[in-house]
Specification:
This protein is an alpha/beta fold. The protein has 2 domains: 4-15 and 86-197, HAD superfamily/HAD-like (Rossmann fold, 3-Layer(aba) Sandwich), CATH 3.40.50; 18-82, Orthogonal Bundle (DNA polymerase, domain 1), CATH 1.10.150.240. It contains 12 helices and 7 strands. It has helices at 18-29, 33-39, 42-49, 55-65, 74-82, 91-98, 112-122, 125-128, 135-138, 145-155, 169-177, 188-197, and strands at 4-7, 14-16, 85-88, 103-108, 131-134, 162-166, 181-184. The strands form 2 sheets. The chain has a 5-stranded parallel sheet with strand order 5-4-1-6-7, sandwiched between helices. Helix 11 (169-177) links the parallel strand 6 and strand 7 (181-184). Helix 1 crosses helix 2 (33-39) and helix 1 (18-29) runs antiparallel to helix 5. The longest helix has 12 residues, at 18-29. It is elongated. The chain starts with a strand and ends in a 6-residue tail after the last helix. 36% of the residues are buried. The model has no long low-confidence stretch (mean pLDDT 95).
Length: 203
């Protein structure tokens, strides 16, 4: 029996568009768009999401990784970073309908800049859920097992009574190995069908 439902944020509840960020940085740095795309330091990003880099350290590391990015100042950098996150998807309406019957939590690979200075103030579902487990706060990111164990500990849940909804296959696979029930998010209609198949009808 499912008692707790963990929703991923980016790609599930909120749209994500890295291309908008890359274009903004390209324009302000005077660097070709393809160069920005190819040189983005993904491991640095992962360290930032684990809470191991400050905002300033993250900015400097990304700028240093982009060849000839001397024109990219910190203001333009964070303007572009904010553009990464778009509007709500239809999954947020499903989340809100599940609130009366289930313990609904957020479980996200994310960073303090997006959460503290942007999206948590713009979307009502952040305040409606029971709570949130953010990678930068717990020092681990999906698909690392540690973040799933921390999510269970913080929420007071058991894996066999928990459902993860996430758009990334490796995250879903890891949660399934740890005993979670899982749904890989591909569309709102598919999510509704998968939830109903699990006996969750309030969608």
């Amino acid at each position: 029996m499912i008692k707790t439902i963990f929703f991923d944020i980016g790609g599930v509840l909120l749209e994500i568009d890295p291309e908008r960020t890359a274009r903004h940085w390209s324009e302000h740095a005077g660097v070709p768009l393809e160069m920005v795309r190819e040189s983005f330091p993904m491991e640095i990003h992962h360290q930032y999401e684990r809470g191991r880099l400050s905002d300033r350290e993250f900015f400097r590391a990304v700028k240093a990784a982009i060849p000839r990015a001397n024109g990219l100042d910190e203001t333009a950098f964070w303007e572009g970073w904010r553009l990464l996150v778009g509007g709500e998807t239809g999954a947020s309406a499903i989340l809100k309908r599940l609130l009366p019957e289930y313990n609904v939590w957020l479980l996200s690979n994310t960073n303090p800049r997006h959460i503290l200075e942007d999206v948590a103030h713009r979307y009502s579902f952040f305040k409606a859920v029971k709570g949130a487990i953010y990678s930068y706060e717990v020092g681990a990111r999906k698909p690392e097992p540690e973040i799933f164990w921390r999510a269970l500990e913080i929420s007071g849940s058991k894996p066999e009574e928990s459902l993860l909804i996430d758009d990334v296959e490796v995250n879903v696979e890891q949660a399934r190995r740890l005993g979670f029930k899982t749904i890989r998010f591909v569309s709102v209609d598919d999510l509704k069908e998968r939830l109903r198949a699990m006996g969750i009808t309030r969608v």
